[in-house]
Amino acid sequence: MKLKVLTGVTIFQLLLAASAQAIPTTYYDIDFSTPTHNVGAAPTTGTGTDKVSSVVFGQPVVESSFGALSSESLVFNTTGNSQRCCYYDQIKLGLGKGSDRYQVLFDLSTENYVNTGSGNTFTLLFDTPEVRNIYFNNDGTIRYYNTYGPSGAIGNFTDGSLLNMMIDVSLVANT
Amino acid sequence: MNDTLLSSSIFSPSGNDINSMRFSFGGSSTTSFDSVGLDNIRVTNGELFASVPEPAALSLMLMGVAAIRRKNITLYCLISSVFSGGADNDSHAPEIAVTAFLLVLLRQFNPQICWRVSREKVRFGFVLAITFIRLVSMKERIEPVANLSEAK
User: Domain ends where: A50, A65, A94?
Assistant: First the structure.
């Protein structure tokens, strides 16, 4: 009798732990499609998982497609960004969810950027609040930067190519 | 294009939460001919990568149950630690260790206290519900891995 009860409890606890592990909590899922976002306009901002938290600088615009990105995409350029404060196009996604781990996926494509004399850099900044950055440099290299730790190259890319980026951050394991 | 899974210690030794992330394009002096497109941003709490394959996880769970049936707590803990898996740093070892400890305690006390209702029906219901949830969630877990393969 006791053994059966123990087995039942074990099954329940093991399956519960396993299922809790399997279901991801989605903080953001943004594909810049309508009706949330509109082609020709700035990305819609707000608190939903399908919205950008804010446009910090510049005027990034949603376009119907871009380069290797076949569906609605957010396009960054510095055209019209004339003031020094706003040389950048920059969007922000608020986090601070208290998670041990964040996994970030996004698709990226560039045009007239690699080895063209571009004066710009595309950067993914993680505010921890110490800065951890991933740079997509205009020489076609992808590099990571840690203020107090190692930095280095992790890959390469070319104009017109589709980059499926996946970044797995474990704050527990410090990776 | 080569895919790279960043595994360096980029986040050490801060230990702080990530307050925000920003996508930024620009420089100290700008050029107008270059541009970058961004799409399909997805941020989760880290369960998108399949860690332990489903059949393997299920097998380990069943082995764990079998260990309990044989009253072999040591074997159960060993299997549980394998199940929790260190390869992806996704450790559930503490939870499982606590579970094992509670099971040891339950052996010392009257377990019927925790199981007054029709246990067979409840057990079947839980197994059915959790199995369904796991099957649904498998799609979520497998898709990104497929994307990685396609990109290669």
Answer: A94
